Amino acid sequence: MEYFLIILGVICSILGVIGCVLPALPGPPLSYTSLLLLQFSSQEHVFTKNFLMVLAVITVLVSLGDYFLPLWGAKRYGTSRQGVWGAVIGMVIGIFFFPPLGMIIGLFMGAILGEIVAGKENSRALRSGMIIFLGSVMAIFVKLSLSLVLAFYFFTGLFRLMI
Q1: Within 13 Å and on the Cβ side, how many CA atoms surround 27?
Q2: Three-class DSSP category at 46
Q3: Which of 51, 72, 59 is nearest to 19 (CA)?
Q4: What are the C-alpha distances in Å from 75 to residues 60, 68, 84, 143, 163?
Q5: Neighbours of 96 (CB within 10 A)
Q6: Residue 31 and residue 48: Cα distance in Å, rounded?
Q7: pLDDT in tens, the chain (163 residues)
Q8: Distance CA 51, CA 56 (A)
Q9: CB atoms within 10 A of CB 46
Q10: Domain ranges of the chain
Q11: I need a surface site. Which of 1, 41, 81, 137 has the fewest CB within 10 A?
């Protein structure tokens, strides 16, 4: 059972990092799950409870921020509802036709088209597209950073268990 949990933890850690770029996979929660699997794989505790609790809170905050950061930025800078929906639709279309880069391009183009449909002038539509794009890129960067940190702790803990 110990080896099964460790192998599952390695898979979760790898998928967690990949999931930061692919929206179908919840990156940080998968990366955090790898820490829990490592913790339960051994009689000896690899991490302290406080450490795991702090990382759980950070993981939840980053995961929520992933959904709300681009929308918050869009609303803060006056993006219309059509621009937000255009970004979401563009992202989904981009994922299916040009993964994973299509997600970002689709998000950007969809926001611009949504703003044009809302009747905004081209420069304002481009600005809204850039705001949503930058918010999404920032959210991906934060998720990826956290998942890489969690992967580091997972593999460091695994190494300590093996010694």
Answers
A1: 28
A2: coil
A3: 59
A4: 22, 10, 9, 22, 51
A5: 10
A6: 17
A7: 688 999 999 999 999 999 888 777 889 999 999 999 999 988 888 999 999 999 999 999 998 887 777 777 777 777 888 888 888 888 888 878 887 678 778 888 888 898 898 888 888 888 888 888 888 888 889 999 999 999 999 999 999 888 7
A8: 9
A9: 19
A10: 2-162
A11: 1
Q: What is the DSSP letter of 1?
A: -
Collapsing DSSP to helix, strand or coil, 99 comes out as coil
Task: Give the ranges where the chain is alpha helix by DSSP (H).
Answer: 2-18, 27-40, 49-76, 81-97, 101-117, 122-162
Give whole-number Cα distances, 14 to 20, 33, 52, 114, in Å. Answer: 10, 11, 19, 35
pTM above 0.85, yes or no: no
Choose among 127, 106, 105, 103: nearest CA to 115: 127
- Which structure tokens are listed for 111? 């926001």
Q: Tell me, what DSSP letter sits at residue 140?
A: H
